[in-house]
From TrEMBL:
Gene for this chain: IL17RC
Keywords: Cell membrane, Glycoprotein, Inflammatory response, Membrane, Receptor, Signal, Transmembrane, Transmembrane helix
Residue span of region Disordered: 685-706
Protein name (database record): Interleukin-17 receptor C isoform X3
Pfam family, one: IL17_R_N
Membrane-traversing stretches: 471-491
Coiled coil (residue ranges): none
SEFIR domain: residues covered: 502-654
Species whose genome carries this gene: Equus przewalskii (Przewalski's horse)
Protein topology in the membrane: Single-pass membrane protein; Single-pass type I membrane protein
InterPro entries in alphabetical order: IL-17_rcpt-like, IL-17_rcpt_C/E_N, SEFIR_dom
């Protein structure tokens, strides 16, 4: 649903308040006074002749201020005109003069003077009223009793009813006395139109006016005119500019109700709408609904254009007045901020569509005009580098600011992004490093003078020769940096490759039965997703057959240790029995070793590492919950961490991945993933009768699965 954009009701002030007016009956003008005063209105109008200012012979009445109020003068119930009531506030001006004989005798003034000072004061007050096409002057006689006569004090007011005026016109009111003892008072007021007053039913011209409203639905703005089908009216859109007469840029004669779309980009704060019935001497209604709209102010700023006027002039073109300040600024290449030249050049207020002069000697492509406007909480900025088209692109020149003091004392600083850096200073900026060279360039005439007065000057010094020297150093630094990066890449290549595929892990286990092999296979597959580079005999049966279990284990162990990986000993009842057999803590277990039993073959190399203390850092142990008790692991192998799976999976994975592993939260997520992968195979093993007490013998299903 379209929502009202702006309540198009205008009163004497800026607030959109609808005024209810007092009603006066009859045609006669009238005057009334404050209590204690007496007043009389002369019949008919008088000639407005203020005359010259004369000296007051003593205390006199003078007008001090004017007030206006709108009322209705009605001839019948529905036949009224707008009328302006004027109140004139009066005060006593001047003092009683001393008698001449008292001054000659040199006597002091009596603290309570005798009257003639008890006399009342009388004044003739003139009110002059002008509102096109009406002009009137009336005369009011006012008398103040002696009791109220106090020099410099207000005595009250006199009220005149009333001056008739047309809706929407501008009225001017003057007041003075005859004779005139001071400058006349004046007051100017803009009267509201029909929309600012509750007069639609009493003023005939208001009943025929087109009723306007502006609606907005998103970016779509419409002007809605609600009139009868047969009514004809004129409609005009114009920019209400401060300078110059009103110039409509759109005008139509229309009939009946209308909905007219407005272009979003045409909406600016000074856009006004005027409508009137196509009748002789009709009242025109004007509204300016966009004066406080933020979008209108943004559109105005986008429409504003800076124009260069040769040789050193410029102008801001805009459809509306702008409250903005302008200054010259220096724009260095590289799209950094444009630095205002304040000081030494001051900011100045901008008048739109008026030519202004730059206080410059020469133009430069880096010199720009920067204008800043603040409306409500919106900061708007406009910048144009006016000489860029005629003098070419921005130059990498250094702007030097010369300050002149007494006794020909001069100092120089260079304008940089950090501020104005004094030359020959110890700052770590480009201007400070090249301070001596820049001064030599200035004294040798290589710099262009842009501005000059008694307080200082501006100089633009070329930096081309210094830029070439700098680029040689930059290229050399880039080559050294590229060489260092290439060397670092070669040194880290192997490490990066290993880190991308994960740490190596060699799983050794005893193939107790097919269910246990499936459980180990599930663990190996889950560890590959961690990611780890897993080696297990289940996935290398062809190599085992070709090389033999012992040779295969030696090759895998050497590779794992060299790459900084770990050998994982997975203990099961069969593995524990094999360990005891090798340690000769028990008799040989029944049954022969399988043809691919890498665990049995590896014990000849694993046991010496544990007996000689080389196992920590190379080996870890593991067993599955429910298949083996922790106490069943031989004491020799407890020299390395032994983990229960899946209950201790986070610690197990942390040990496998080492210090470069993921953060604890991520490690917990991976442990949950491995646990979910293990649980079905572990449950299957636990459901098999006699699994917990199983030896190392292999059934017929533990054969070659390649």
């Amino acid at each position: 649903m379209p929502m009202p954009w702006f309540l198009l009701s205008l009163a004497l002030g800026r607030s959109p308040v609808v005024l209810s007016l007092e009603r006066l009956e009859g045609l006669q003008d009238a005057a009334r006074c404050s209590p204690g005063l007496s007043c009389h209105l002369w019949d008919g109008d008088v000639v407005c002749l203020p005359g010259s200012i004369v000296s007051a012979p003593g205390p006199v009445l003078v007008p001090t201020s004017l007030q206006t109020e709108l009322v209705r003068r009605c001839y019948q119930e529905t036949d009224c005109d707008l009328c302006v009531r004027v109140a004139v506030h009066l005060a006593v001006h001047g003092h009683w003069e001393k008698p001449e004989d008292e001054e000659k005798l040199g006597r002091a003034a009596d603290p309570e003077p005798e009257e003639p000072r008890n006399a009342s004061l009388q004044a003739q007050v003139v009110l002059s009223f002008q509102a096109y096409p009406t002009a009137r002057c009336v005369l009011l006689e006012v008398q103040v009793p002696a009791a109220l006569v106090q020099p410099g004090q207000s005595v009250g007011s006199v009220v005149f009813d009333c001056f008739e005026a047309a809706l929407g016109t501008e009225v001017q009111i003057w007041s003075y006395t005859q004779p005139r003892y001071q400058k006349e008072l004046n007051l100017t007021r803009q009267l509201p139109d029909c929309r600012g007053l509750e007069v639609q039913d009493s003023i005939q011209s208001c009943r025929a006016l087109p009723w306007l409203s502006v609606t907005a639905d998103g970016d779509n703005v419409h002007l809605v005119l609600d009139v009868s089908e047969e009514q004809s009216f004129g409609l005009s859109l114009y920019w209400n500019q401060v300078q110059g007469p009103v110039k409509p840029w759109w005008h139509r004669n229309l009939t009946g109700p209308q909905t007219i779309p407005l272009n979003q980009t045409d909406i600016v704060p000074c856009l006004c709408i005027q409508a009137w019935p196509l009748e002789p001497d009709s009242v025109r209604t004007s509204i300016c609904p966009f004066t406080e709209d933020p979008r209108a102010h943004r559109n105005l700023w986008r429409a504003a254009r800076l124009q260069l006027l040769p040789p050193r002039g410029w102008r801001l073109d805009a459809p509306c007045s702008l409250h903005a300040q302008a200054t010259l600024c220096w724009q260095a290449p590289g799209r950094g901020p444009c630095q205002p030249l304040v000081p030494p050049l001051p900011r100045e207020n901008v008048t739109v569509n008026m030519a202004l002069e730059f206080p410059l000697l020469k133009g430069h492509p880096n010199l720009c005009v920067q204008q800043v406007s603040s409306w409500e909480k919106m900061q708007l900025q406009l910048q144009e580098c006016l000489w860029a088209d005629s003098l070419g692109p921005l130059k990498d020149d250094m702007l030097l600011v010369e300050a002149r003091g007494p006794q020909d004392n001069r100092s120089f600083c260079a304008l940089e992004p950090s501020g104005c850096t004094p030359l020959l200073s110890r700052a770590s900026t480009r201007a400070a490093r090249l301070g001596e060279q820049l001064l030599q360039d200035l004294h040798s005439g290589q710099c262009l003078q842009l501005w000059d007065d008694d307080l200082g000057a501006l100089w633009a010094c070329p930096m081309d020769k210094y830029i070439h020297q700098r680029w040689v150093l930059v290229w050399l630094a880039c080559l050294l940096f590229a060489a260092a990066l290439f060397l670092l890449f070669l040194l880290k290549k192997d490490h990066v490759k290993a880190a991308a595929t994960g740490r190596a892990a060699l799983l050794l286990y005893s193939a107790d039965d097919a269910g246990f092999e499936r459980l180990v296979g599930a663990l190996a597959s889950a560890l590959c997703q961690v990611p780890l580079r897993v080696a297990v005999d289940l996935w290398s049966r062809r190599e085992l057959s070709a090389q033999g279990p012992l040779a295969w284990f030696h090759a895998q162990r050497r590779r794992t240790v060299q790459e900084g990986g770990l050998v994982v000993l997975i203990f099961s009842p069969g593995a524990v029995a094999l360990c005891h057999e090798w340690l000769q803590d028990a008799g040989p277990a029944p049954g022969a070793h399988g043809p691919h039993d890498a665990f049995a073959a590896s014990l000849s190399c694993v046991l010496p590492d544990f007996l000689q203390g080389r196992a920590p850092g190379r080996y870890v142990g593991a067993y599955f919950d429910g298949l083996l008790h922790a106490d069943a692991v031989p004491a020799l192998f407890r020299a390395v961490p032994v983990f229960s799976l899946p209950s201790q999976l986070p610690a197990f994975l942390g040990s496998l991945q080492g210090p470069r592993g993921p953060r604890p939260g991520r490690l917990g997520e991976r442990a949950e993933q491995v646990a979910r992968a293990l649980q079905p195979a572990l449950d299957s093993c636990l459901r098999t009768p006699g699994t917990a007490g199983m030896g190392r013998g292999m059934g017929p299903e533990a054969g070659d699965r390649t």
